[in-house]
Amino acid sequence: MLTELATVKARLKIADSDIVDDVLLTGFMALVSGRMQNDCNRVFDRAVNAQFEFRGDEHDLLVDRYPLESVSLFETKNSEAEGWVAVADPVDYLISPGRAVIELRDQLATSRQLGRVTYTGGYVLPADQGDKGEVPAGQTALPAEVEQSVVEQIAHLYKNRDRLGISSVSGDGGGLSLDKASWVWLPAVAAVVEKYTRFRM
Hints:
It contains 4 helices and 9 strands. The two termini are 26 Å apart. It has helices spanning 5-11, 22-40, 144-159, 187-195, and strands spanning 47-55, 60-61, 68-77, 84-86, 93-95, 102-104, 114-121, 166-169, 176-178. Helix 2 crosses helix 3 (144-159) and helix 3 packs antiparallel against helix 4 (187-195). By secondary structure, the chain is of the alpha+beta class. The radius of gyration is 21 Å and the shape is elongated.
């Protein structure tokens, strides 16, 4: 997840020893982290030997985990029966300055074939960072603004947990209107979501 329970509880000024709402908060953490990744069209957490599939005639590979650290293998597939076959010749590629795109000099195959790249990339999540937020050389910590945005959205959900799904309450007769909107980001969080959104094809 894109933050830790202790961080959320600190934001809400809930003592570590108070575990009454830990399950609820953990659920909100999973919900907001998942929605952040879905709306940003990417996977934030770092993975070694992650794989990304693409059409064989593509030149710019917009992998779903970045920043990119390294590329280890290219493969092609002509049919399900044959399966994936490693590209024997060296592949000439360049990693973009933003470390988000693998630029191929030549296409690996045709549009009727598939390509696959194995690579290492993504951010080191808070749970995997050291006590002081340090990460090994060559790796990148999850940006603080991403984690803080997740924390603020969780805090908003928690503080309004008794009103979730309610858009308005009228005084006369106690009328209740239910909000059927799928999701609303806090304005500051929405700006971060937009900033970190991966290009959508």
